[in-house]
Structures are given as structure tokens and as C-alpha cells.
Design a protein that fits this description.
alpha/beta; Recoverin, domain 1; Purple Acid Phosphatase, chain A, domain 2; five-stranded mixed beta sheet; Ser/Thr-Pase_EF-hand_contain; calcium; vision
Length: 700
């Protein structure tokens, strides 16, 4: 009996160890792919930079197309924004049976909203616009750094990223209670994107903010950003939910995001920020800047003009004329948009450079007239604002410093090493070490930092000798069972108490017998999703992989060793994954220990047989740059209809293929157009475009 018990114990330990190893490998796949996708933002900025630097429009049609790429909309002044988004002009039909709001809001309104959203009902656009209008008025009165005290409530609850996952918010309120005078909440940014119910989360949070303005506090996250929303689904989802008034709602939300506070200070001892800090973080500067100027804090690289020592900051991949103080669009009929003059030949670089500066300056002057900004008035205080390119003064370092302060607290991540370095993985912010944390805590007499921004398997994680706490509240972030969500409660002693959860309706309905096999079933499901995403990533780099494999195949046998396969794959994808450990899931075992790499790549390509008629190089580029393409298409689709014309689609691919230095024939692009236009109406539905090129079918 004793020997049997020992054998069972050994077997169980090996079983648990294998499960843990599989879980960690799956986690690394998801996280590596997510962070690699963050770099797509840089690629998009480089794409716009390329257009500004090298592309010479050959016709007025191409000039108009590029103008739309750089100037996605016109700007609103304060009064024009309120007029454009006038909720009183929106009528509520008698047939509407959803929740209704009247101001000032009462707790009963919040309860009614929660029940309505649980029943999958929607709030009418009139009430949404009215709520956003009142929220904006309230946020404008708040400081950049809000102060919370545990003296006025029993405890303060801090929640991390929610990312449009309404079930997680419901579960938090169920476990912890609704906001009230005795229960304060701090929601630490990233309310939207990725999940399908971002708008509902905003409505609930804004409602409680107005009901309990002293107990509910909202910080801005890196996803409360217009350019990020274009990429990660919030804009498209909002238009799909509310097509008639969606554009007005989107503009108001964009403006509300600009007014969200940047940080929260609990009892003057705990700093709550979304991302992190850097070695230059200064709370005094953060407390004084005009936060509403930062429509989007993302930017591309800095570049120098060919014959001037002037650094021109790339701004969100947009024209320097795009952003305004309110960060919104106005009717284009207010002032006619200037048409660029005929572009000179690329053979004369100096003349072409001058033409670019003149064209951009004309756009700047046009946007200034739209918002009634005279030359004597100060310019915007951000990198996502109007920057003059005609003089040689260069960027104002004060403005750059303010921009960097905001960028760092929204995008930075901690690292175990000492020091502070650029966050090349995400493309924004920095990595900060324990020494940087210690200096900030000592400088401002703080006990520790609370941040979010990173998904953690257990929902929370300490680092830097327990001086930095990461809290993440979106459970099942990558896949059902991939991670827990968590929130942290702080009392007057400021000792953190954690509550973990997993909003999984499927698990709640399982029997006891089924629950016993749940860990293995969930790991298998998460594993399947992770490897599906990884195979898509591999297929997207087919050409580069072939070149890397051939470097090891000196005799052109079509075979390489499995060790060389692992080395070559990492050299191309740069994901930092344990490829030798992952190999059994990706490569079939071979008797001689050699891999026929062309057959292996053909197997990856076979998973989308329906697209065989499309040029192979085009299909590969689509997969590799799908996020970039979606963002560009959202910019081109100015009326947010989800449709673009064949001509716009063709022009996009001409520019994109020139930037990527890929030869794509007109016939190849035309074949792509015909395959996507399912209803043959002469327009392309971009949602169907993405669906048409999924690497594998969704799991049944």
C-alpha cells in the first residue's frame, strides 16, 4: 500500500508538472504574439512616413487619396462639438423599450442599466450622447492626478484592464458590491477594445462616475486613444452597434477620453497609473499639463529632412494638421480644403522636399482656419498636434517632455534589470527597473505603485521587491481558461487584499465529474487557440522562412535538421519562444530527424484552400500586415460605413505594395477584389475582407 501511494504521488506530480509546462508554453505563445502585434503600430507610422518622404502622386486622384490618408477629418471647436453631438435633436421612438436616463442620475438609473445590459438590451443613442455630454463636463473639472482617501470609505478597490469584457465587470460588482459612499473604486484604464461590449462598460462606468463623483475614479489607459481604437476594434464595433448615430457617439467618446485623469493617488502613498514610469517621470509636470491636448500619444520615429538639421516628429502616422484642442471633426464645408500643387519629379530631391513641406503647410493653415487659430495663438502642446514645418526651430523640447511624460505612464512596463530603456516590444514607453521605482517612491514619499497594462496568469503580480503591483481584471483574456482576473482592495493600512475570479459561464454549468477534468480540457482548448495563432504567424512569414531554411540547406536537398529548423524559425519571427519544446505540436516526427521544409510550409498553406486563386505573395502580405491594413481602411472609410470603393482599395494596395517593395500585379489585386465582393455591389465590406482571410476556421 505504501509503494502504491508513492507511485500514485509520483505520477500525480509528473502530471501536474506537465500541465504546468504546457500552460507556461501556451502563455508564452500568446504573450509573444500580442507584443509582436504591438509593433505593427510602428509599421503603420513608417508606412505614412514613407508616403510623405517618397511617394510622388501621379494624378489628382492619387493626391486626393493621400490627403485622405493624412487628414482623416476636420476639427471642431468647443461649441461646434456640442452642436454636432446635440442629443436633444435625437428622438426616442415610442417603440423603444430599453432603459431611460434623466439627469441628475440616481442609483436606480445605474441598477436599471445593469439589468438591461444583462438582458442584452441597448441604451438609445440619445441617452448615450446625453451621458457623454454630462461626463465630459464633469471630467473637465478634475485635476490630472486625482486624490482618494480611505478615511471617507471603508476601502478603495482598484480594478485593472477590462477590455470590453462586461461579464468581468458584472462579476466584480457581484463579489465586491456596487459603488457607493462607503465603497470607492478606481478603474485603471483600458476599458475598451478587444472585447465586444466596450460601449456598455463605458456607459456603466460613466453612470457611476456621475452618481458618485467622489467615490468612482477613472484613469486613462493606452487604449483610451483614437489611433489605438482604430486598430483594436472599438471604433468598428461602435459603428456596427449604432450605425445611425455612431459617428456622433464616437466623436464624443474620443473627446471624453482626452479628459480622463492620468493618475490617482491614494492617501498620498499609493500611486495608481495605467502603464508605469520612467527615469524622467515628474508628477509635477503631469499635474500641470493640458491633458485634453493628447488626442493620441502614439507617434512614429523621428526623421531629419535631407538638407536641414530639423527633426520632424512623425505624429500618429497622420498629418501634423490632424489634431486640434477638441480632437474632433467638423463639417468640411466650413472652409474648402486646399488642393496640393503638381508634385515635382523625384529626380530633384531638394525640389521634392520643398514641395512636401509646402503641401503640408497648406494643410496646416487650412486646419487652423477650421478651428479659428491665428498665427499669434500658441500651438498644440502634443506630438499629435499641429507642428509647423516651415521654420528651422525644431520641436519645442518642453512640449516633447510633456508628451513623453504621458507616453511613459500609459505605455511603460517594469523589468527585473536595473535602469531604464526604450520599450521596443510595444513601440511606446519604456522598460523601468527596480532602481527607477525606488527613486520615484523616495522622491514623492510613496509606499508602492499600482499599474495594469499587462495580462497576468493569476490576475495580479508583484515585482521590484513588492514595490510595483500589476493588476489585470479581464479574465480569459486570450482564450477561455487562459488567465484569471483580479482586483485589489486597500484599507486605511494600505495592505493589499486580492480577489481572483474567472468569468466563465461554461465552467459554471459543468457537473462535478466534468469539473474534475476541467484543467486538462481548458489547457487543451487554450493550447489549440495558441498554436492556431502561431501557425498563422508562421504562414505570414513563408518567404522569409524559406530563405532562412535554405541558408542551412547548403546542398539544396529540401531538408534541414530539426535543430536548424528551430534556430531558423526564431531568427525570422523573433518571438523568443522555446521552439524545440513546441516542435512536436508544429512539425510531424520524422524517422531520419530531418524536415522537408517545403512540404511543411505547404501544409500550412493548405489550410486555406479557398484562396488558391489569389497571388501567393499577396496572400502572405495580407496575413503579415492585417492589423495595419485594417487601420488604414478605417481611416479611408471616412463615413464609417464599413465599405470602401474598388478604386480606393486598388489605390491602397498600390501604395502598400510600393512601401513593402513587393511586386503585385493588377490582375492579382483584381482577383482579390472579385473574391471579396460577395454581394457584387461594387464595394468592399472590410469585415468580410478579414473573414475571408482567416487562416483556420473558428473552433466549433
Amino acid at each position: 500500500a505504501f509503494k502504491a501511494a508513492v507511485l500514485i504521488q509520483q505520477w500525480y506530480r509528473r502530471y501536474v508538472a506537465r500541465l504546468e509546462m504546457r500552460r507556461r508554453c501556451t502563455w508564452r505563445i500568446f504573450q509573444s504574439i500580442e507584443y509582436a502585434c504591438e509593433q505593427d503600430q510602428i509599421k503603420l507610422h513608417n508606412f505614412f512616413s514613407y508616403l510623405m518622404d517618397h511617394f510622388t502622386p501621379s494624378s489628382s486622384k492619387e493626391r486626393d487619396f493621400i490627403s485622405r490618408m493624412f487628414v482623416s477629418g476636420e476639427s471642431f471647436k468647443e461649441a461646434e462639438l456640442e452642436k454636432y453631438c446635440d442629443y436633444e435633436s435625437v428622438e426616442v421612438p415610442d417603440s423603444y423599450t430599453g432603459p431611460r436616463l434623466s439627469f441628475p442620475l440616481l442609483p436606480d438609473h445605474a441598477t436599471a442599466l445593469l439589468e438591461a445590459f444583462k438582458q442584452k438590451q441597448q441604451l438609445h443613442a440619445r441617452y448615450v450622447l446625453n451621458l457623454l455630454h454630462e461626463t465630459r463636463k464633469h471630467l473637465k473639472q478634475l485635476p490630472n492626478i486625482t486624490h482618494v482617501s480611505t478615511c471617507y470609505s471603508e476601502e478603495v478597490t482598484v480594478c485593472g484592464d477590462l477590455h470590453g469584457q462586461l461579464d468581468d465587470l458584472f462579476l466584480i460588482f457581484y463579489k465586491n458590491g456596487l459603488p457607493s459612499p462607503s465603497k470607492s473604486y478606481v478603474f485603471n484604464g483600458d476599458f475598451v477594445d478587444r472585447g465586444k461590449q466596450s460601449l456598455e462598460i463605458l456607459i456603466i462606468l460613466f453612470t457611476f462616475l456621475l452618481i458618485y463623483p467622489k467615490e468612482v475614479h477613472l484613469n486613462r489607459g493606452n487604449h483610451e486613444d483614437h489611433m489605438v481604437n482604430l486598430r483594436y476594434g472599438f471604433c468598428a464595433g461602435l459603428i456596427a452597434v449604432s450605425w445611425v448615430h455612431g459617428k456622433k457617439i464616437l466623436k464624443m467618446i474620443q473627446n471624453v477620453f482626452c479628459w480622463l485623469p492620468l493618475a490617482t493617488l491614494i492617501d498620498q502613498k499609493v500611486l495608481v497609473i495605467h502603464g508605469g514610469i520612467s527615469d524622467t517621470t515628474d508628477l509635477d509636470i503631469l499635474g500641470k499639463i493640458q491633458r485634453n491636448k493628447f488626442i493620441s500619444v502614439l507617434r512614429g520615429k523621428k526623421r531629419k529632412e535631407s538638407n536641414r538639421n530639423v527633426e520632424i516628429p512623425e505624429i500618429n502616422g497622420e498629418s501634423k494638421a490632424e489634431a486640434d484642442p477638441a480632437g474632433n471633426e467638423a463639417a468640411p464645408s466650413l472652409h474648402p480644403q486646399p488642393r496640393p500643387s503638381q508634385a515635382p519629379s523625384m529626380t530633384n530631391r531638394l525640389e521634392f522636399s520643398r514641395w512636401v513641406r509646402q503641401t503640408v503647410q497648406e494643410q496646416i493653415e487650412w486646419c487652423r482656419r477650421l478651428v479659428d487659430i491665428s498665427e499669434s495663438e500658441p500651438e498644440e502642446l502634443t506630438y499629435s498636434s499641429v507642428v509647423s514645418l516651415t521654420d528651422a526651430e525644431g520641436p519645442c523640447w518642453t512640449r516633447q517632455e510633456e508628451w513623453k511624460q504621458v507616453l511613459d505612464i500609459l505605455w511603460s512596463d517594469p523589468m527585473p534589470q536595473e535602469g531604464c530603456r526604450v520599450n521596443t516590444v510595444r513601440g511606446g514607453g519604456c522598460y523601468f527597473g527596480p532602481d527607477v521605482t525606488g527613486k520615484i517612491l523616495e522622491k514623492y514619499n510613496l509606499q508602492f505603485l499600482i499599474r495594469s497594462h499587462e495580462c497576468k496568469q493569476e490576475g495580479y503580480e508583484f515585482c521590484h521587491n513588492r514595490k510595483v503591483l500589476t493588476i489585470f481584471s479581464a479574465s480569459n483574456y486570450y482564450e477561455i481558461g487562459s488567465n484569471r482576473g483580479a482586483y485589489v482592495k486597500l484599507g486605511p493600512d494600505l495592505v493589499p487584499h486580492f480577489v481572483q475570479y474567472q468569468a466563465n459561464k461554461t465552467a459554471h454549468t459543468l457537473t462535478m465529474t466534468q469539473r474534475q477534468g476541467l484543467p486538462l480540457a481548458l489547457i487543451s482548448r487554450v493550447e489549440e487557440s495558441a498554436f492556431r495563432a502561431l501557425r498563422e504567424k508562421l504562414f505570414a512569414h513563408t518567404s522569409a522562412l524559406i530563405s532562412a531554411f535554405k541558408a542551412y540547406d547548403k546542398d539544396d536537398t529540401g531538408k534541414i535538421t530539426l535543430s536548424n529548423w528551430a534556430t531558423a524559425v526564431e531568427s525570422v519571427l523573433c518571438l523568443g519562444l522555446p521552439w524545440r519544446m513546441l516542435r512536436p505540436q508544429l512539425v510531424r516526427s520524422t524517422a531520419d530527424g530531418l524536415l522537408e521544409y517545403k512540404s511543411w510550409l505547404d501544409d500550412l498553406a493548405m489550410e486555406q484552400r479557398s484562396q488558391e486563386h489569389i497571388q501567393s505573395s499577396l496572400l502572405e502580405v495580407i496575413y503579415r500586415n492585417r492589423s495595419n491594413l485594417e487601420t488604414i481602411f478605417r481611416i479611408i472609410d471616412r463615413d464609417h460605413s464599413g465599405l470602401i470603393s474598388f478604386d480606393e482599395f486598388h489605390q491602397t494596395w498600390k501604395l502598400f505594395s510600393a512601401h513593402m517593395n513587393i511586386e503585385l500585379t493588377d490582375d492579382g489585386i483584381n482577383d482579390l477584389v472579385r473574391s471579396i465582393d460577395f454581394n457584387k455591389d461594387g464595394n468592399i465590406d472590410f469585415n468580410e475582407f478579414l473573414e475571408a482571410f482567416r487562416l483556420v476556421k473558428q473552433a466549433q
